[in-house]
């Protein structure tokens, strides 16, 4: 699933004072199989693609649209399409092709758009008349700056993979070619809604400080009701109000060309609610300077209802929630923010949620989502008995990006987690958690679902039991960088990985100053492997004995690794344990070394070293006291040879000796020669020596006259 970076979100969220809005992002695709030294398999990573191609289209008009009728009158051509012109705007480029009367064909600029009749016009000098057939292909006009410098569409991203453009108000689809031309990554229905810009000159702005209805302020519902539903949007500014209704809705539905509603609270303004806020398509709710608030005043607010419901649970919508304080006022079962439908133009940031009784931010299993849940600079302060600060229980492929999250609890210790990736999260989803501080929760981060989690800068304290916790049910991959638990206790782990069976306590060692700099693991196809650095050494742990743990190379690659502990049975297979041991029955087994899947050597439980191939010693080989070198089994030999061979010699019949020489490369006169006959004869003796460099002399002497026969002698030269 593709991913557009946070920059696109941040820009689109900003209230712009320019005539056009800007979008920017990066050419990236997540959930790509990667290779990581130290891990078996191919964990999912996010890949970057420099200089990719970026193409921008009108949402709902990605290709050619059939023409129902076309006519020209007074040099104005009117085109009726077979489908909706929703999101088409004036000044767009259009290519007309295939019309029966070819005089209509060519490249033009859209002059007017009438959505209700699927009609647009363009100017062309020509005779009056009509025709039929053909297609229209629309191309949005892009700009490289706010001054109106034209940017080609499509265009090429920078060598670093970043891209940006300015455009007029409407909804766009942005496609990047990360996956190649056959599988581009597309972010749909990106909303450009500058209320001061082109195509928004009739936008409404309602200031509810105006007293109406017997000196009372307009309710949020009444103020929003005055906003037009389509297509120009509305901007409501609001001050203090105590609502007696069941809450209010900001935004619309994705079925219309809806530029949305912006609902702003003045600095310090407070909206008292007795019903939730529904944030739907194109809806924005924000406060000024992080001092405005939505809160439950008490009374009839329904339990087990979120204070703010983001999305409709059916569609991936565009919503924004920022710069607000939310007070759930201890209503039983209350969740602060529930996210049920997000896309890459959406975000929740700069919020503080207090006194919730369920979860601070809940991303539940009814989501229909595209790519990221983006949450930045959010603070969660739950009540006694509260659950998770951020609970992700998504079944539709959404990916969490959370940065600078603070989790605390005003009451006693609770069983929830600062971030909980729950069991129904979609396999392959990649979640990112950066600069997360957690207190008084059982876990800082808890992964017990499917997918991948990367956490950078997780800081735990004030009662957190497990700072980073991987439950036995987790599958996928996990990376924890700079994880810290200040508990300084053997019972408060920095890392608790129940898949690999690793627990790294917050004491030193293994956690110097309560920190583990690096830990990564994965579980795939019923096997696991983990790799980490602590105060002792680098460690590797796996239950798959047929896969080499590291690629040992020169340069900056890993040169050596620490072996400690014993080898134990894990689900019937061998594994290597470097700190904590393996899961399963703790029974000693041989440590086996494999080369390309073939057994090469074994350290058995009696501390014997058994090698199936040859052992080459480049230096000296020391034999300890009481030790020795032996050759066991048929055909086993143990020798250090300079040269060796055979020589056939016939002994003398009379008493006396016969000498024969043979070439022995590398032999010197300081070396020894060992000679032995293949079939010994009586009454003869034999010996050998290096007579000159590279030459061996073998002497056979007859000591009693006899009729000797030819004999083959084995010879070898040793140092």
User: Low-confidence parts, pLDDT < 50 over ≥5 residues?
Assistant: 1-18, 195-217, 545-589
What's the average pLDDT? Answer: 76
Question: Treating each run of at least 4 consecutive H or I residues as one helix, how many helices?
Answer: 2
- Main structural class: mainly beta
Number of DSSP E strands? 54
Task: State the assembly state of the protein chains.
Answer: single chain
How much helical structure, as a percent, in the residues?
under 10%
The portion of residues forming beta strands comes to 35-45%
- Shape type: elongated
The biggest sheet amounts to:
17 strands, mixed
For the record, give the distance between the C-alpha atoms at the N and C termini, rounded to a whole number: 66 Å
Radius of gyration: 39 Å
Explain what you see.
The structure is a single chain. Among the domains are: 6-59 and 142-192; 65-139, Beta Barrel (Elongation Factor Tu (Ef-tu), domain 3); 202-298, no CATH class; 544-614, no CATH class; 643-718. The model is unreliable at 1-18, 195-217 and 545-589 (pLDDT under 50). The longest helix is centred in the N-terminal third of the chain and has 8 residues, at 6-13. It has two helices and 54 strands. With 719 residues, the protein is mainly β. It has a 17-stranded mixed β-sheet that branches.
């Amino acid at each position: 699933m593709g991913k557009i970076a946070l920059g696109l979100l941040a820009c689109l969220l900003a209230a712009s004072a320019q005539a056009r809005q800007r979008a920017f992002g990066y050419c990236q695709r997540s959930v790509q199989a990667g290779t990581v030294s130290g891990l078996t398999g191919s964990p999912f990573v996010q890949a970057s693609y420099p200089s990719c191609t970026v193409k921008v289209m009108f949402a709902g008009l990605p290709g050619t649209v059939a023409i129902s009728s076309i006519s020209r009158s007074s040099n104005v051509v009117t085109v009726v399409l077979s489908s909706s012109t929703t999101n088409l705007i004036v000044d767009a480029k259009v290519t007309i092709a295939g019309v029966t009367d070819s005089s209509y064909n060519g490249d033009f600029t859209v002059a007017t758009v009438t959505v209700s009749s699927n009609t647009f016009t363009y100017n062309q000098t020509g005779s009056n008349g009509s025709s039929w057939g053909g297609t229209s292909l629309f191309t949005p006009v892009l700009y490289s700056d706010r001054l109106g410098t034209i940017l080609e569409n499509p265009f090429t991203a920078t060598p670093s993979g970043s891209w940006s453009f300015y455009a007029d108000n409407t909804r766009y689809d942005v496609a990047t070619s990360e996956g190649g031309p056959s599988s581009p990554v597309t972010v749909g229905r990106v909303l450009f809604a500058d209320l001061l810009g082109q195509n928004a000159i009739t936008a409404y702005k309602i200031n509810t400080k105006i007293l109406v209805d017997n000196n009372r302020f307009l309710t949020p519902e009444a103020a929003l009701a005055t906003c037009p539903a389509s297509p120009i949007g509305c901007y409501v500014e609001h001050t203090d109000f105590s609502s007696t209704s069941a809450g209010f809705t900001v935004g619309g539905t994705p079925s219309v060309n809806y530029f949305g509603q912006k609902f702003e609270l003045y600095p310090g303004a407070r909206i008292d609610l007795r019903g939730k806020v529904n944030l739907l398509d194109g809806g924005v709710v924000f406060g000024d300077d992080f001092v405005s608030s939505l809160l439950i005043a008490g009374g009839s607010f329904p339990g087990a209802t979120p204070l703010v419901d983001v999305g409709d649970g059916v569609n991936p919508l565009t919503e924004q929630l920022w710069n607000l304080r939310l007070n759930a006022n201890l209503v039983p079962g209350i969740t602060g923010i529930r996210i049920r439908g997000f896309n890459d133009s959406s975000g929740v940031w700069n919020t503080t949620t207090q006194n919730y009784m369920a979860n601070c931010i809940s991303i539940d299993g009814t989501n229909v989502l595209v790519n990221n849940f983006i949450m930045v600079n959010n603070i969660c302060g739950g009540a006694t008995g509260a659950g998770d600060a951020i609970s992700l229980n998504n079944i539709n492929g959404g990916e969490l990006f959370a940065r600078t999250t603070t989790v605390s609890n005003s009451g006693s210790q609770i069983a929830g987690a600062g971030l909980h990736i729950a069991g129904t999260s979609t396999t392959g989803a990649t979640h990112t958690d950066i600069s997360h501080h957690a207190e008084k929760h059982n876990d800082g981060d808890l992964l017990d679902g499917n997918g991948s989690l990367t956490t950078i800068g997780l800081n735990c304290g004030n009662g957190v039991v497990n700072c980073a916790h991987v439950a036995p049910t987790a599958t996928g991959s996990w990376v924890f960088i700079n994880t810290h638990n200040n508990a300084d206790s053997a019972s408060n782990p920095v890392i608790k990985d129940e898949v690999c069976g690793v627990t790294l306590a917050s004491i030193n060692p293994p956690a110097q100053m309560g920190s583990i700099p690096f830990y990564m693991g994965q579980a795939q196809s019923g096997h696991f492997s983990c790799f980490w650095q602590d105060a002792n050494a680098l460690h590797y742990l796996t239950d798959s004995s047929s896969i080499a743990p590291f690629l040992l190379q020169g340069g900056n690659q890993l040169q050596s690794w620490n072996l400690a502990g014993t080898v134990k049975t894990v689900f019937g297979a061998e594994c290597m344990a470097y700190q904590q041991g393996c899961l399963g029955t703790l029974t000693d087994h041989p440590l086996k070394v494999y080369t390309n899947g073939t057994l090469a050597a074994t350290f058995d439980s009696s501390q014997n070293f058994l090698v199936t191939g040859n052992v080459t010693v480049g230096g000296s080989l020391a034999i300890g006291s009481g030790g020795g070198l032996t050759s066991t089994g048929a055909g086993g030999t143990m020798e250090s040879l300079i040269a060796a061979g055979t020589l056939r010699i016939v002994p003398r019949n009379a008493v006396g000796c016969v000498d024969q020489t043979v070439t022995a490369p590398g032999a010197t006169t300081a070396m020894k020669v060992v000679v032995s006959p293949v079939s010994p004869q009586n009454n003869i003796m034999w010996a050998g020596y290096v007579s000159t460099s590279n030459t061996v002399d073998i002497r056979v002497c007859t000591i009693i006259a006899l009729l000797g026969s030819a004999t083959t002698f084995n010879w070898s030269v040793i140092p």
